[in-house]
Design a protein that fits this description.
The chain is an alpha+beta fold and 69 residues long. It has helices at residues 27-39, 55-64, and strands at residues 2-3, 10-11, 16-17, 45-46. The chain has a two-stranded antiparallel ribbon.
Length: 69
């Protein structure tokens, strides 16, 4: 985590971009990769509908199910 500008707000210093994950061949492999990222401490994921017409958002939801509060 790092300070955001001159504020006292802490933001992740590292993120996980999701554009290219849509090229992964199986749902299971994509979900496994997301969970590896979470296990490694990643808390910020860049994601949007335009990344493979929502496929990456669906995988994100499946991968985080039961892991988030």
């Amino acid at each position: 985590m790092r300070l955001f500008g001159r504020s006292r707000v802490m933001v992740p210093a590292l993120g996980f971009g999701r554009l290219h994950i849509g090229d992964i061949e199986t749902d299971e492999a994509a979900i496994r990769l997301i969970r590896y990222a979470v296990d490694g401490g990643i808390t910020y994921f860049d994601n949007c509908w335009e990344y493979h017409r929502g496929k990456t958002e669906q995988w994100m939801g499946s991968a985080l199910k039961g892991l988030r509060d």
